[in-house]
Amino acid sequence: MDNSVTQMSSGVALGVFLLFCRVGGCFLIAPGLSAVQFPVQVRLFAALTLTLALAPIVWGRAHLAHFAEDPIALVRLIVVEGLIGMTIGALGRAFFSALESLATVTAQLLGLANPFGVELDAGQASAPFATLVTLGATAVLFAGDFHWEILRGLVASYQTIPIGADFDASFTLRQFGGVLGQSFLIAVRVASPFFLYSILINFTLSLVNRVTPQIQVFFVAPPFVIAGGFALFYFVVRSELSQFMDAFASWLTWG
Predict the structure, then answer these.
(1) Which entry of 66, 154, 167, 218 is 20 to 30 Å from 33 by CA?
(2) 6-44, pLDDT tens digit by residue?
(3) Quick one: how far is CA 41 from the chain centroid?
(4) Could you give the CA distance from residue 197 to residue 195 in angstroms, rounded to a whole number?
(5) pLDDT digits over 174-188, tens only?
(6) Residues 80 and 157: beta-carbon distance below 8 Å
(7) How many domains does the chain have?
């Protein structure tokens, strides 16, 4: 009797800890949830809260207790659960990384590539324009309750990849390839108005400089180029962010 109770308690404790490994791994990388603006203590308590909320799922998994008898198998299980959680978070982060990359390119095209930007990720400071776009997308992520979809996908992962399953590296690489292609495609679509604007404005300035070589057009034009870029950003930012979040929500639902 006491032995069975001890094994059940060991299985429950181990299952809760394994839940925390996957949830914590996801919180380390997932967009929005891993932002440095959230203190580490807040993210830690959020991960613990979600873990305890999901704990009843694994309370009946008494067969997990035998892993405690094999340290090597237990360490392997912990590493696999952490990798699965980080993979889920990294797949979502790929969309925001692609958006930030294209926003940085856009900032260079508009003459706004100031290196002294706001640090959204630890050790990574981007141009202020790219920070503005990424921060806006992150705000929409929480305002539209898309972070709950990330958590829903995390919960659903236990049906697809149950605790104790092997980490399929080839399947993970295929998923990353598909997500990277999809994320950069939508990011290029979002940044396309600024690419077109840069091509048109530079072509126009080249013609003006060719016609009137006495005027240093490229020294006079930057303020007007930046003003035009901000005007274009004002008119298209709502639709572009909506298009990006729609694609992200579609991936969360069907990906």
Answers:
(1) 167
(2) 555 556 677 778 888 888 888 888 887 777 777 778 888
(3) 20
(4) 5
(5) 888 888 888 899 989
(6) no
(7) 1
